[in-house]
Every structure is written in structure tokens, then in C-alpha cells.
Predict the 3D structure of the following.
Amino acid sequence: MASEDLVTNLPGQPHVEFKHYAGYVTVNEKNGRALFYWFYEATTLPDDKPLVLWLNGGPGCSSVGYGATQEIGPFLVDTDGQGIKINPYSWSTEANMLFLESPVGVGFSYSNTTSDYKNLGDDFTANDSYTFLHKWFLKFPSYRKRTFYIAGESYAGKYVPELAELIYDKNNDPSLYIDLKGILLGNPETSDAEDWRGLVDYAWSHAVVSDETHKIIKENCDFGSDNTWENNNCSEAVDEVLKQYKEIDIYSLYTSVCIGDTANSEDSKTKIMMKRSSKMMPRIMGGYDPCLDEYAETFYNRLDVQKALHVSYGRHLRNWSICNSVIFEEWSYSRPSVLPIYKKLIAAGQRIWVYSGDTDGRVPVLSTRYSLSSLGLPIKMAWRPWYHEKQVSGWFQEYEGLTFATFRGAGHAVPSFKPSSSLAFFSAFLQGVSPPSSRYV
């Protein structure tokens, strides 16, 4: 029953007219596997607005800690970690927003079967998220036939298309039909070879590394090869890129890093985690306000907050963290490229919009341009600026079947940097209209 998950006494919550719900959906009864969600009805006319599922990446990072309360939800964690404040640019002004902590081990999601944590990977995550949706619709049957979109950023660049493909494939069965209309991806990991190439080219073009380091990488690294890391010259030069990025916030080149009592070179916010053998991208925790992760962790580790969000089963016995580094380190399978899924969804007529904050070094605009370029899509409308409040918000290009846009001066988590323009962009996506290409619209 949805009513059991209604949130009524969240500490510090300002008065609002909309309803929001939080709790668990069991996706595997036998193993005791349950995913945690937080759902916000649209702030006005929820019955007339679509349903949007938001996923954060990592793998291992919380959609509640990032998306819901640092970026696009109606409440943002306050800077003391003790309360929340209204977000006037919440995406819930345009849609009913569902935030999912996936897979198990992320945030409040859990399994009672230890072996589940050893099997986590892209396919495992997609299947559990798909099961979650159908069981969530049993709790909220009025959304069962609602227009549906999936959005996400970073490693969710893999999650979102993979889940969309699963929905599309299973929609042949009328009893399983979900009215998926499109996907929206921000600074998304897309294709490992192009993502790596874009990372090092961006670091060089933005003066993070020397000409010499870049030259060594160009001559020695074949990011499309399974044994690229066996080349010591390549490995050492890439280590140099990552070493320089540890000095700044790779997610936001031009903002400050968090300097506080707990901040040091080995802090999780600057710790690089790499699995070279699998060609996975480096994982480095960070964001716009470099201390914001700490505020979120302070808030979600409060027992009264957990009780209000219906966190049960004695889950308070362990510390809530915004990212679970063990999940990344033990990730069993990452699809090397989701570009084949793009082609499949484009052929099916799905709406696909991709956007990049152009000051992100982690999944930089170059990585995304390299990936999209390899699709070879015909150009429908050429590269041009798009505007918000009479200023250039970025540039965009419309291909046959896909729209790509940049956000000028935004880092990895775009809505944290550009809340107003990202909301306008989201609204255009839902309406299926181009972002404003005139300063005076």
C-alpha cells in the first residue's frame, strides 16, 4: 500500500502541498533483496504529468543523496547537514519524480543474501530495476499507464539505456507494458574507449597535463584494446593525468575543493579507484559544493530522518554513505558500450537527449562528442546556441533521433551548477521541443 510509505514527519521539512513517499520494494523474496525509493508527486497537477525515474551512477552512488537532495528534488540538504530547504528549480514542478537507490548496497537498499553483493553488475542492476518498476506500480497503480521517461547522469549513462532496452524488449507482452517515451542522459558514461580518449584529451586541452604526457598517451594507449594497461608507458602516463586531477575537483575544474577538518589527500572525495583490467573509468568522488557529500551523509545518518523515510529492518546499524566504494571495486560486469542500445532505441522512435556540463573532467564533453560522433547520425539542425534568461546557456545540435546539448560553465552534476536552466531544458525535453535558440524567446 502506498499510504504506508507516505512521508509525514521528515525533520526540518518546510510545509508543502504535494505528497511524497519513501520506502522499500522487495525485488527478490527468496534472497530478501529490497530497493529503496523516494517518490515525489509533481508540485502541481500530478495527475496530468508524466512519471520520470532518476538514477545516479558510481556504480555505487545514491540517487537519494545526489539526485533527490543535491540536484533536482524538491528538497535540498542544508549546508549544516541538519535540515532541508525548498528547491525552487525542482524537476518535480514538471513531472512526478521517482528516485531509486540501485543496486542493493547503494544507500538504504540491501540484500539479506551476502552472495548478491558479489554478483552486482550492469545486467543484475537492470533486471532488479525492471522488477522494482513493476512492483512499484502495484503500490501506485494510477501510474501504471502513465507516460514514462528515464533520466540519469554519470555511470547511469549505462544504467538508463540498459533499463530502457529491457523495457522495450519486454513491452511485447501487454501485461508487462510500460509507456516508455524516452531517455535523458547527463555527462553519461557511454563507450569506454571514447570515454577514456575524451578524458585525456580534455585534460590536455584544459591545461591539466603537459604536452609530453598527452603525447605519450596518444602514442601508447589503445583504449579500445583489452590489453591497453599492459603497456607500461600508457599506464604511467594515465597515472600522471589522474595524479594531476587529484589536486582539483575532476568533476568541476574551476571550483574549489573541500578543505575541512576531515579533508585530506586520502579522503574518499579524492580517492581514485581503478580496475584497469576491465577498462572501467576511474571513480573519483566529488561534486559542485565539494563539502555537500558530507552534509548529505550527516543528514541521512540521523535516526529520526531514517525513521521518517521508513528505513527499517534495523538498517541504522550500518553507516549510510553517499557512495559505496566496495560496490565499484567488486563490480562484476560493465557493458563496454551502450551505443548499440542507442541505435536500437532510435530505430524504435524513442526520444533520446544527451547533455554535458562543459567544465566536467570526469565524463567530459569530448567523451560524449566522440561517442555520439561514432553513431554517424544525419544532422537535422546544425550546432547553435541555446538560451535561458537571455544568456547563452550552452550549445546544441539535433540529429535524426537524438539531441545533444552543452551547459556552459557547468560541472558533472549539471543541475547543481545551473538549476534554473537545467529545469528549462528538462521541460523542453518532456515537451519534445527544441531548447530556445533565440535570446528573446
